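Researcher: We're reviewing a set of sequences before deciding which ones to prioritize for further study. For each one, I'd like a predicted 3D structure that I can look through quickly. This is TonB-dependent receptor. If possible, include the structure in token form so it fits the rest of the review sheet.
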Amino acid sequence: MFRYSTISMIALAVATPVVAQETNPDADDIVVTASGIEQPGDEVGQAITVIDADTIETRQTIDVVDLLATTPGIRFNRTGTTGSVTGVSIRGAETTQTLVLIDGVKVNDPSGIGDGYDFGHLLTGNIRRIEVLRGSNSVVHGSQAIGGVVNVMTATPGSGFAGGASAEYGYSDTVNARADLSGTTGPVSGSIGGAYFRTDGISSAAVGTERDGYENIAANARLKVAFSDALSLDLRGYYINADLDFDSFFGAPADSADVARLDQYVGYAGLNLGLFDGRFTSRAAVTWMRNERDYFFVRGTAPDFGYKGTNLRFEYQGVVAPADTARLVFGYEHERPEYDFFGFGSTDSQKANIDSVYALAIVQPLAGLSLTGGVRHDDHNQFGGATTFGANANYSPNGGATNVRLSYGEGFKAPSLFQLYDSFSGNAALRPERSKSYDVGIDQSLADGRALVSLTAFLRNTTDQINFDNATFTYGNIDRTRAKGIEATLALKPVDALNVTASYSYIDARDRSGRPAFDGKRLPRRAAHAVSLSADHDWSFGLSAGATVTMVGDSFDNATNMVRLDGYALAGVRASFAVTERIEVYGRVDNLFDADYATAFNFGTYGRAAHGGVRARF
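Model: Here's the predicted structure for TonB-dependent receptor, in token form for your review sheet.
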């Protein structure tokens, strides 16, 4: 069993360097997740982690969730082989309280019990940037941004033409390949990419012997047409087709022949207009997301049951900048989530309409001080309205070397269509879940930017949390939860060739419902302590090598804290070698010491696994 004290973990975090792109962004970074518009990092008072393209390529990671796991405040659980159901919790919130965007489109699934997003099918493929906002932020993002926001982006086309491709092979007959092409000519820019992944996998049942295979095909495309300096059209699309063997068991774990298939469609079409030398900009867009999930008890038969979740949104956003030191962001959104179910001799279809308005002011009244505040109102045709507020501040007395951050954010999560309307367990009287989130932090740059220290303390209270009521056999607003903790990161680049990275977070997430069996207990699958340490070095003759160590403390698999999940430590090593300026070979070994661990009770995890491949760029 892997155990350690809070004091020892804090000492490790403070003593270990962390890469700059995985801490709060500095003044040279531009982020979009905090306010919905591009902002320099030193304007933002909220805690944001940026995982850039270089980090994604260097780490050689297949799953997006494995990248997220090395950032502070993130906990995850996966139910077996690659592609299995995977949830991400931010600062101890429920996995259904994580809002997920892909290229600006909200992709949380309306056909899920809690509208959560399954990260199991989201592979790194052609993803080139991830922003993780920690803390409640419903003013900008609406429903589900209680724990925070994960914003996933594909590459934006640059000037000229470029392309790349990679292919790798490894453990369990795993094949992973991707290719992309982008270019700009005159007023038109665009990109297109595709990725393919297949593996024989592992048994999703921890004691099983039959491997559960997985196949994933993903495609992405962007097109931007600048009709003039003021008017442009922006089109984006993302698609995932997945086929998963999984083990479905009740009671004792066992192999099974179950199969799940997914088609996920993501689309964005927007018009951008800028007037008065950029003092007033407008964006009007339509976004569309559709998840089609079919489940088979035996492969080769007709689906036994399935779900379709669709979300059609209209968005308008305006930005007024009356002065260089002030901006007003305002907008209107209409959202129409729908879900359909078939199976076991019945069908069900439900839908809702949500109208939202919001306004956000960003001002710099003094040199080095940025203040942000806003309000949002959402009107749901079933449960009524929800109003949320948020405010944050960032102050730098020395031109960005020191940033002091303060943030207050409110969040809400609308009841899912299943929770409202299910014929057996639905409750049309449900209220939205609500949260209040506070954090304070400081970022300190040292040694001319070669070192960056960041420390954040946070507290979140959630009320009216929806859970299944075993007394009435329906969903009800019966839970209260509290999460508090600290996040520490440190970045060091002593020489240009060396990056050493680490992050630490302590999360105390507990039930505060007052129910005797649960009150005061730790929330399931949310370890209190987690540390990640990485180091990468580039040699002058073309070799790069690195390693990552991740340590996660003990947690519990159930709400009564009767089933323990032991803590674990994982180590991985990687290397790449530039054969030419455009061709590179690479390889890695994951779980180097073949640790036996679990992120969900009775579900399998990978042991030691080696992979190797080649990349080409032009």
